[in-house]
Design goal:
Radius of gyration: 20 Å
Order of helices and strands: EHEHEHEHEEHEEEEEEHEEEEEEH
Largest sheet: 12 strands, mixed
Number of strands: 18
Helix content: 10-25%
CATH topology of the largest domain: Rossmann fold
Oligomer: single chain
CATH class of the largest domain: Alpha Beta
Number of helices: 7
Length: about 290
């Protein structure tokens, strides 16, 4: 990351953080750095923040600071993706798994940026095409049954050939970053974010084959909604974006280095995983 000349704030819609924003604004003012924000998000704050559209913020910021939880961090990653703008995650309230620091560490983090004592890590995304629509997910995509309707019956195709079919409540395709989210709750493994690939896992499967599949980043994956399936919801990073009918084919490819995150080296991925997921040893090992 080169010289920071404009910092873009990405804010949680319901968590006010005037002290945190004041800290960032004062830090920026002393260094001649412009502070930017999405107009409706920064309107409640009486601070010298340039109000922009989300597109304008993404274009002008040389560093994005996410203030919120994991959902805010995912939105910041999405905003920064096109211009490869690095994102510093600051967790507000509950422990955010993706955020790098908590609020008490903010002063130290800003000093580290001043002194160039940080690294920038890349995160892969999932490029998803269905019909004429394309989106990118940083955690996961899920094909989900509609409550009250039938099961999600989905065929997994690898390199253009049918591999296995699932009958389940949902089928999740996750990045390594997203392996600790929906996929983990469905019984999936924890995957290091340094790995490039994608994980396919059924949720509450009714089919004989109920195991997860991990594919390399170069392998072509497609999900086909089978004729006997009900209509399914398509969730991208937890947000419902569409409904798709039986017969629909969804192509999914890994987009390497789709986003960049600032790391200060205070905690490792595994330390964050331990805290967020409350991992402890078995009683037998204590």
């Amino acid at each position: 990351m080169g010289l920071v000349n404009a910092v873009g704030l990405v804010l949680h819609p319901d968590r006010r953080s005037p002290e945190v924003i004041e800290t960032i604004v004062e830090w920026a003012r002393g260094r001649g750095i412009e502070v930017l924000g999405v107009a409706e998000e920064v309107a409640p704050y009486d601070q010298p923040i340039t109000a922009l559209s989300p597109e304008g913020l993404a274009e002008r910021a040389s560093l994005l600071v996410s203030l919120g939880g994991d959902g805010t961090m995912l939105r910041a990653l999405r905003l920064g993706s096109e211009h490869q703008t690095p994102v510093l995650g600051v967790n507000l309230g509950r422990l955010g798994f993706l955020a790098e620091i908590d609020v008490p560490d903010l002063d130290r983090a800003l000093c580290a940026i001043d002194d160039n004592r940080f690294t920038v890590e890349t995160r892969s995304g999932l490029h998803i095409i269905s019909g004429d629509r394309a989106v990118v997910a940083f955690n996961d995509i899920a094909l989900v049954r509609v409550p009250g309707d039938g099961m999600a019956m989905v065929e997994v195709q690898v390199e253009g050939h049918p591999f296995v079919s699932y009958a389940s409540d949902a089928v999740v395709v996750a990045t390594p970053t997203g392996s600790t989210a929906y996929s983990f709750s469905a019984g999936g493994p924890i995957i290091s974010p340094r790995v490039e690939g994608l994980l396919v896992i059924p949720v509450a499967p009714h089919s004989a084959f109920n195991r997860a599949i991990f594919l390399s980043q170069g392998e072509k994956l497609a999900l086909r909604i089978l004729p006997k399936s009900s209509e399914l919801g398509v969730e991208v990073d937890g947000q419902l974006v569409a409904h798709r009918s039986p017969g629909t084919l969804i192509d999914i490819t890994v987009q390497p280095a789709a986003a960049r995150v600032v790391r200060l080296g205070h905690t490792t991925f595994y330390q964050r995983a331990q805290r967020k997921l409350h991992l402890t040893g078995s009683p037998e090992t204590s």
